[in-house]
Amino acid sequence: MTRRLDIDRAKGLAIMLVVFGHIVARQDPAHVHWYLPLRRAVYAFHMPFFFYLSGMVSWLAGHVRAQPAEWPPLAAARARRLLLPFVLMGTLIVIGKLLAARFMVVDNPPTGMISGLVDLVWNPAHSPAFALWYLFVLFALSLLAPALLWAIRGRLVPLLLAFAALEFVPLPWTLYLAVIARYGLFYAAGICAGSLGDAWTGWIDRRRPPLLALFCTGFVLIAADGAAIPFAARLLTLGIVAMPALHALVRFPGLSSDRILATIGRYSLMIYLFNTSFIGLAKGVLLRLASWNGEHFLGFACALMAAGLLGPILLKRTLFRAIPVLDRMTR
Length: 331
Prior knowledge:
Blueprint: H1 5-22, H2 35-42, H3 46-61, H4 71-100, H5 113-121, H6 133-151, H7 156-166, H8 177-196, H9 198-206, H10 208-225, H11 231-250, H12 259-266, H13 268-289, H14 297-318, H15 324-329
Helix pairs in contact: 1-3, 1-12, 1-13, 2-10, 3-8, 3-11, 4-5, 4-6, 6-8, 7-8, 10-11, 13-14
């Protein structure tokens, strides 16, 4: 698969939004009125956009078109790529939170080692490392989609409709089933977009202004007065609008040569795995020095964004690249 720089830039934009959403975890700062509305709007589209990109990559890499004989090696490869980092990083977070809670404020600490690991997989609503959920859900979708597509003889429209139907099926949170059903539609949409190739990218490029105008309108409405709208409705509406709009945005000539977004995008897995750890450490130190309430929060937000983005990149460059197994796992 030839590396697509527009996908790298899109991943860079998406992971920056993920980090922005993680700078506040459980307890909101007091007397800060701008962050919560922005986070509410960001949460309505940033992960749908990520799954759209993942579905597109799955099509371009040929994973979703794998035949039954190819499923076992595909499952093994996906497990190494997604499940292994999920389990290892989840375990590290559980241990780290148990130790750090003795010395500083820790968001969502586990009650114990065993219970923390069980919640990580079986009871994600209480997971001490819920921020890693994307890896588990993507693993499940990357195996479910090829099997479903094979069963329906490679027809993409029924695939899209099947995942759309899951949006309305009440599933439990156990083993992330509810989350898999919630985001499968966006993964399938990315598969369909990838199958269209240049026809899709040409269409979004030609319609960039109205697509971005529609997205911005939805973003403002949800930020300004979206609290009363159910989360699932926000996700479905703005998530669908965001997929073509943000993809078109990163293909804009002014951004097509942007190295920052592309570089961040290439480190997106590393940032996803470690951003909450670096944010948590930075927050724990900063809260010992000053309050993050009121006018102090803007400085905190900038510092925590920098920690969440730059910390994982520096860790990758200084340590993980010197250890081949860790380097391969976090590419």
